[in-house]
Amino acid sequence: QVQLVESGGGLVQPGGSLRLSCAASGFTFSMYVMRWHRQAPGKERELVAQISTAGNSTYYTDSVKERFTISRDNARNTVYLQMNSLKPEDTAVYYCSAFSRYWGQGTQVTVSS
What is the pLDDT of residues 3-54, one digit of tens each? Predict the structure, then answer.
């Protein structure tokens, strides 16, 4: 049974940091490009970051470059998203996916003072 379980979301003040984790099971994690997506209220889901199978190639959408870092640990079947200098516009439900084939349930990130 495929599972992707996100954790680490919460309420943070502008300028703060959060680290999201996504634990995978039920498929060969190391063979999948992993992604973080987000969906804000009233907006379409967008791709935030992506990491290659070996972790040596990454992609970030422009709005998070220099602030977010995606990483993975293939031994732990886990992908991470380190989010720094958070802004109110980063408020959204964050989802991880295995190349958009398998999806987690999402974790809420709220950036507010």
Answer: 999 999 999 999 999 999 999 999 999 999 999 999 999 999 999 999 999 9
Closest CA to 14 of 57, 67, 60: 67
Task: Residue 80: name the closest of 51, 56, 47 by CA.
Answer: 51
Q: State how far the Cα of 104 lies from the Cα of 95, in Å rounded to an integer.
A: 6
Is the Cβ–Cβ distance between 27 and 102 less than 8 Å?
yes
Consecutive H or E run containing 71: strand 68-73
The values of phi and psi at residue 73, to 5°, are: -130, 100
- Report residue 65 as tokens: 């470059």
φ, ψ at 22 (rounded to 5°): -140, 110
